[in-house]
Design brief:
The complex is a heterodimer. Chain A contains eleven helices and two strands. Chain A is mostly helical. In chain A, helix 8 packs across helix 9 and helix 10 packs across helix 11. Chain B is mostly beta strands. Chain B has two domains: 117 residues, Immunoglobulin-like; 92 residues, Sandwich (Immunoglobulin-like), CATH 2.60.40.420. Chain B is 9% helix and 43% strand. Chain B is globular. Chain B starts with a helix and ends with a strand. Classes of the chains: A mainly alpha, B mainly beta.
Chain lengths: 296, 236
């Protein structure tokens, strides 16, 4: 009886001792599809390509970033580079307050961040990028104690309809998106000029009239994720608890019509209606948006 | 068999000790929070961009970065035992933070680690709740009028600045603390930390504009010790 108990104890002890070994084998790695990244290789790349902005410790205080002024001929990056120690990321497919997936960071590396000084790292190999992500994840304690959040569910996108766009327009008003993004989506709402990010740097809401790219992607699917997850570290909150998935697609389709300088099926559909054509024509009037010197 | 008996006995001891009521009395640390110098003049808030809130006030409310009372009293200061007391499990009652009239009620909310936090919106406008946590997780959620409460909790102690990006005058603090020995100074600057078992404690006072101060205090028996804090006020 006692003998049996003791052997059970030993088995338990062995599992307990082995568990940290199993975990440590996974720490220092990233997984993007079939590619496994390794932090040791990523470290070399980081100190070649990234540390100038993101800093020696990864806290976003590289010497290329200076809050005011700066060395001659050095760009002053208004938006502070990501602080990998705090590990608060804008572009995620996971709920607000959670860590992004490896794939989310990978997508940011491939795409770059629009309206910031973060370029697209398409020139690196996918293995390079995976290695960098593995290294970035060693810079914060958070990755040791937390897992990436569960990806939010994105239902299949329905075809855009005029009714849907009109409903999206109502949501834009009801949810007070215009308070920051402006009634026409030009980033000039009543609260726009007061916005600061979590580093206390001024930040401007997205101006839909200015182009086709968003901070975190270009597709309708990306747009859906942006407002459902929020852009952590910025004033853009998560609407996941507030917008029903079926309503969210209507809002996506309406937001597309605000991109008057970008051809899209939604814009074409909207311009085909009397109401939409009038609104779009008015929105195409060019001008200087307020606070145009401040980065988005 | 012997093992089992021992186990049962230990369970009995454990349950008895859990049934014993908390110590009815103990020492108390009480005192007053004051300031010296000239505190920043609190400005009336211009809520004209949010008429649904502005109309709730006959005269515009002022900012609350420094709230004072008569005789140099300093209100809204979190006083807590930062060392010497054991960490405590969270109480079952939720801490409630209400947005009303485009202000935070209370302006400073003290809660315990892992205690449920409920954020309510009683306004006719959307707010976004953006607690700027540094050691805890930073999140940012929209809460339109009529939304259910936002429920969350924090698993590490921290003084967290809270803001609403839509209404830039809205600022508050979540004081996430390790134990239930805390008090927020009232209009007269007074505070009391009762039911402290004998021991050596560090008492810390935190004010959102002036930072924190600490003092050591030793409690033996059911005495009341007076500890006072004075913050240096800056006019800007």
């Amino acid at each position: 009886m006692r003998q049996k108990n003791i052997s059970k104890w030993f088995a338990g002890l062995a599992i307990l001792l082995a568990a940290p070994l199993l975990v440590s084998a996974q720490q220092g790695e990233s997984h993007i599809g079939k590619v496994t990244g390794h932090a040791d290789s990523g470290r070399q790349l980081y100190f070649r390509y990234c540390w100038g902005c993101h800093g020696f410790r990864g806290d976003g205080s590289g010497e290329n970033w200076l809050p005011t002024g700066g060395y001659p001929n050095t760009p002053n990056l208004n938006i502070q580079p990501r602080n990998f120690v705090a590990a608060t990321f804008k572009c995620r497919s996971t709920p607000t307050g959670t860590l992004p997936t490896d794939q989310d960071i990978y997508n940011s590396l491939v795409r770059g961040l629009n309206n910031s000084n973060m370029p697209s790292w398409i020139t690196l190999t996918s293995q390079n990028r995976a290695d960098l992500i593995a290294f970035i994840k060693t810079l914060s304690e958070r990755w040791k104690t937390e897992k990436a959040g569960a990806e939010i569910a994105v239902p299949a996108e329905p075809a855009p309809t005029v009714q849907g766009i009109q409903h999206g327009k109502e949501l834009f008003t009801k949810l007070e998106c215009w308070k920051c993004h402006g009634p026409e989506g030009r980033g000039d709402g009543p609260s726009a000029s007061t916005l600061t990010d979590s580093n206390d740097q001024p930040i401007r809401p997205y101006n839909f009239a200015a182009g086709s790219r968003f901070k975190c992607g270009t597709t309708n699917h990306d747009l859906y994720k942006i407002f459902m997850t929020g852009l952590d570290g910025t004033p853009m909150p998560s609407f996941a608890d507030v917008i029903k998935p079926e309503d969210a697609w209507d809002l996506v389709h309406y937001l597309r019509t605000l991109q008057v300088s970008h051809k899209s099926p939604e814009l074409a559909l909207w311009e085909g209606t009397k109401e939409g054509a009038e609104i779009v024509r008015a929105q195409k009037i060019r001008g200087t948006p307020t606070g145009s010197g401040v980065n988005q | 068999m012997r093992m089992r008996n021992a186990f049962m006995a230990s369970m009995v001891i454990l349950s008895v000790s859990m049934m014993t009521p908390a110590r009815p009395s103990g020492g108390t640390v009480s005192g007053k929070i004051t300031y010296e110098g000239t505190p920043a003049k609190q400005k009336p808030i211009d809520m004209s961009k949010e008429p649904s809130c502005a109309k709730q006030y006959a005269t515009p409310p002022t900012t609350e970065t420094v709230v004072t009372g008569p005789n140099n009293a300093l209100a809204n200061v979190v006083v807590y035992i930062s060392a010497g007391a054991p960490d405590e499990a969270a109480p079952s009652k939720a801490a409630v933070f209400t947005q009303k009239g485009c202000r935070y009620l209370p302006h400073v909310l003290a809660l315990q680690v892992n205690q449920e936090l409920n954020v309510l919106n009683e306004d006719q406008t959307s707010h976004n709740i953006h607690p700027l946590a540094k050691t805890n997780r930073e999140w940012n959620k929209s809460q339109p009028p009529g939304s259910p409460p936002i429920v969350d909790k924090y698993d590490k102690p921290e003084m967290i600045a809270v803001k609403c990006n839509i209404h830039p005058w809205m600022h508050g603090t979540f004081a996430v603390l390790k134990n239930s020995h805390y008090s927020i100074s009232g209009e007269d600057g007074s505070f009391a930390l009762p039911n402290l078992p004998p021991g050596k404690y560090t008492v810390t006072a935190f004010q959102e504009s002036y930072g924190d101060q600490s003092q050591e205090v030793t409690i033996s028996g059911s005495e009341t010790k007076t500890v006072s804090f004075t913050f240096k006020a800056k006019p800007y």
